[in-house]
Amino acid sequence: MFFEEGFPVAGMKKQINVRVSDDEYRAIVEVADALRMKRSEVVRLGLADALNEVSRNVGPVMTDEKHAEVMKELGMLVTLLSGLKSDNSLFGSNVNQLAKLANTGHAVQFTDKDYVDVIRMKNEMHDKLSEVMEGVRTVWRTLE
């Protein structure tokens, strides 16, 4: 991890100046006095604990190859969703036109071809949604 027992001062070449509140300063002084340590050692110890905790909670960095794979998959998903949005808009417009005709007392005539087209559109939308779901699963597995 970042720090082990003790602090080898010889290996420490960088310095960071940090402003703290009066309460934080008093807490650092109290801990340093209680443990008979220098204030800088108390701060390093607290920093080490925080850095160790962060390193345990941060997952591995994504490789460039994985990043490219995720971006490719997300691009495909965006393309599919864009197509679905267009199909849904067309489908909705058609349904709205039919509802308007029906609500104004006009007879709505459907041919066999109309039924086949509606079923085809529904099936195509279902297939695209299935592809989107599979793409989401792929990205999810990649990010696990």
Question: Tell me about the biggest sheet?
Answer: none
Strand content: under 5%
> Helix tally?
4
Share of helical residues: over 70%
Class of secondary structure makeup: mainly alpha
C-alpha geometry: elongated
Task: Kindly report how far apart the N and C termini lie.
Answer: 23 Å
Total beta strand runs? 0
Instruction: State Rg.
Output: 31 Å
Spell the H/E element sequence. Answer: HHHH
Mean of residue pLDDT? Answer: 81
Question: What can be said about this structure in brief?
Answer:
The chain is mainly alpha-helical and 144 residues long. The chain is 73% helix and 0% strand. The model has no long low-confidence stretch (mean pLDDT 81).
Describe the protein's architecture and organization:
This protein is mainly alpha-helical and 144 residues long. The protein has 2 domains: 49 residues, Arc Repressor Mutant, CATH 1.10.1220; 80 residues. Helix content is 73%, strand content 0%. It contains 4 helices and no strands. Helix 1 crosses helix 2. The model has no long low-confidence stretch (mean pLDDT 81).
Show the helix and strand layout.
Elements: H1 22-35, H2 39-57, H3 64-103, H4 112-143
Which structural traits does this protein have?
mainly alpha; elongated; Arc Repressor Mutant; 2 domains; 144 residues
